[in-house]
From TrEMBL, chain A:
This is Extracellular solute-binding protein. InterPro entries: Bact_solute-bd_prot1, SBP. It comes from Streptomyces liliiviolaceus. Gene3D superfamilies: Periplasmic binding protein-like II.
From TrEMBL, chain B:
Residues 1-23 are annotated as: Disordered. It is a multi-pass membrane protein. The chain crosses the membrane at residues 38-65, 101-121, 133-153, 180-204, 225-244, 287-310. Gene3D superfamilies: MetI-like (1.10.3720.10). It comes from Streptomyces liliiviolaceus. This is Sugar ABC transporter permease.
Amino acid sequence: MGINGSVERRTVLKVAGASLATAGLAATTGCGGGSGGSGDGTVEIRFAWWGAEERAKRINQSIKLFEKKYPKIKVKTDFQDYVAFWEKFQTQAAGGNPPDVFQNAVAFLRKYDKRSVLLDLKSQVDAGNLDLKNFRAGVEKVGEVDGKLLGVPVGSNTMSLVIDEKVFKAAGVTAEQGWTWDQYFAALKKIHDTQKVAGDTGYFGIMYLYDLYLRQNGKAFFTEDGLGFEESDLTEWWQDGYNRVKAGIVTDPKKVEQLKPKSALASGDGASEFTWDNFTVRYATEGDSSYGLAPIPTTDGKETGQYLGSLMLSGFARTKHPKEVAQFISFMVHDPEVGKIMGYDRGLLSTTEQFDAYKPTDAPNQAIAKYEADVAEAGLLGTITPHPAGADTVEAAFLRVASDMSTGKTKVSDAVKQFFSEAKTALAT
Amino acid sequence: MGTAVTTLIKDSPPDAPERRPGRPIAVKRRGRRENLAGYLFMSPWIAGFLLLTAGPMAASLYFAFTDYNLFDSPKWIGFDNFTRMLDDPRWQKSVEVTAKYVVIGTPLKLLLALGVALLLAQSRRGQAFYRAAFYAPSLIGASVSIGFVWRALFSDDAAVDRTQSFLGFDVGGWVGNPDWVLYSLVALTVWQFGAPMVIFLAGLKQVPKELYEAAEVDGAGPFKRFWSITLPMISPVLFFNVLLETIHSFQIFGSAYVVSNATCGPADSTLVYTCYLYQKGFKEAQMGFASAMAWMLLLAVALVTVVLFWSQKRWVHYEEASR
């Protein structure tokens, strides 16, 4: 049997090898045509983003408008979910073949700038291909790093607290502008005691929230090249978090994992959850309570530490068509029609043309618009610290180690040590 | 099986009968042409092997000794990746998780495969249907979609969770519970016992009926017959299955990746070796470290294979030992 078996196996392997080789050859020839031009002066640019089907529909619709206005530019698109997007992007970028234009976020600016992947759009602004006027609340600053313009914001968002309004009301708790962390945690306890449901779904693992807490206390999560806090800071933050999980005030992290991709807030296993304000649309579709946006708790009754974060569009440094890339970005952030199509899918629209063109008619989007207006009006907005290279890995580690810690798999002190050691490695590479 | 091998040898032509002095040149030329044609037909495979297997392997061996982030050129650092690996708590965790998976999953899968093969070896109505039905999961086994199905089955408030609650022990979904989720992966591999089962079936068919008849005459019961006849007679097949399934188990990736929603979690509970390797290489861009990990895996699998081959002298019986 051994002999016959292996002979057959070898044949199978050969066939597999041959087909792989053919596929490989086909792929090589396929790659060549990527971003070239054709005889009639038409150029093709590749645009990639992360997001779900819904965003894809809106973006494709916007691109149709763009191609109508610029008939000589064809846009080829590609999208994945967040994690898969960056995995693919990293491989493409390493191979010198990333898309010409792509969605980007603050955590990746320095990382890819350091590796000369990002196009400095300043020259295109000077050449008049990219319009930097009419951005709301100085949000265009988010894409500026070390004197370069590495991304243009398509929308802006800020951290918020989403609450289950029915549960909060039943417990007799109100969330007010300027409330303190002590008041917030007291509210969670009251909710737990009276409504028999955890008050929060796991605040201690959210890097961007911890950043706000640190900013309220005169520190920050990141400096330009490292971490802006000490092991003792994190030990305190996580020890308190762990105690609150044990006490049932915060949702059992196992439950949170089990519910994914649904959120524990939407499933009724928690009464509040910190997240980006533009994510809140999902709760209304996922859950059957009513959800509202509440202010971030503070240390001094005033400063929330908030800033406007943003999704951006960036270009590839060695794109063959920098002009067309700039024209595309400019169109996508300024055209009022595009604003109407995109809505608040990627946060509040970043330019006044688009912001004024889109008037939300549904309650969740109206709430988001009002929330950001309130935050801006309260004069609380600071500016974001551009993240150092490796920030994305640090964020993933923060989330994971916090989860280990909260399930009791790792002692708090060990978890803190592990996080610092992983962060150090990530920020060094 | 033994007969097939001998016929093959008997029927094959004697070695190089035509190579005599004074062989016409035309024949020689034709031989060369045939060789050329042979290589030509093989060339897609050879190219594939060199480009997609041998080349990358050599590159990966080099990268294993470098610090390489995909963007800057690799820096030679000697054995640093390997020493760093041994100090890394997550690497240790990945070894532990993989070992647990192999040690629990492989024997269970083989036991089930053998058990079902024993049942299906007897002729009964609908035999073909049962064989196909039990083999089917192995066919779709490698696909990502089955990972999603598994995730759906074992998540909170899904089929498995509801059955458990109905039976009175409520642990919630297995996916997301660090103490349970690995067992859902074990269940997945055990469920795909079809391939070893088919091989067992083939092995069982080869056991001569006379042996059973003789044993029966001597008054041996079913268990005794299984233990003293079936098991020794199929031990080569068993060895083959143990070897193949063990190696296969070490390489688990797809199911862990999909079921954990690309996190290999929660709390690193499904952080199998290849999943950590993948994270290091493609998420954290530490290709040097990832390459070093890959070579460690190769060494480990080689070591296990050597141990298994060494051990077979003690428990594997070849029928034609007299050859």
